[in-house]
Amino acid sequence: MPARPHQDTTADDPRTAETAPGTVRPGGRTARVREAVLQVAGDTLATEGFAALDLAEVARRAEVGKTTVYRRWGTPGALAADLLVEMAETSLPRADTGTLDGDLQANARLVVKTLTDPRQGALFRALIAASLCNDQAADALHRFYAVRIGEWAACVTDAVARGEVPAGTDADAVVAAVSAPLYYAMVNVGRPPVQADADRAAGAAAAAARAGVWA
To answer: How far is CA 159 from the centre of its chain?
Structure first.
């Protein structure tokens, strides 16, 4: 999915001195440069890890001027942060099945599908590892999850409106409870989650929400 529309420009660097990496949505040649660089950055993270994310090498592989990459992103952490911005923007929208159980199950299965995808799963592991040693990557990862949880929180607010769960239920907490055991399985246990894990996590979160655990 392409980046959001923006005024077309052929400049190598659309940022002002005050603009943080990843906050500009360029068009034209700049958008193509960003797409190429982020593709290479994602491939590098997935196959070699954050330590291998060298800006000069990324520029070479993306066939982009090294000066452009250094000027636009500046550090590997900023490049990883922009990659997470792009991933958040292009992620699938939340499900709307008409029931809390159905919505949370769809969310959980999407998490499992992502974490077990050969490229995406490796990419997330690399970004999680990067967040432990790089402040820019950590901040970006936190923003990524805030965006995704905010997207799926509507499943819970809709359930409140339908009377499925108590008023005042913390929607963000319910959604986080769905994905938490799935990430735990991958990161802490070292076992890729499967669909049965997804269904169990979704069912447990829905039952707890109905019981008023997060009300």
So the answer is: 24
Segment (H or E) for 94:
none
| Other beta carbons within 10 Å of 79 | 30
- CB 154, CB 86: distance < 8 Å: no
Q: What structural domains does the chain harbor? A: 1-90 (1.10.10.60), 95-210 (1.10.357.10)
d(CA 23, CA 80): 13
- pLDDT tens digits, 112-157: 999 999 999 999 999 998 898 999 989 999 999 999 999 999 999 9
The whole-angstrom distance between residue 32's C-alpha and the CA centroid of its chain comes to: 21
Tell me the residue length of the chain. 215
User: Is 70 a residue whose pLDDT tops 80?
Assistant: yes
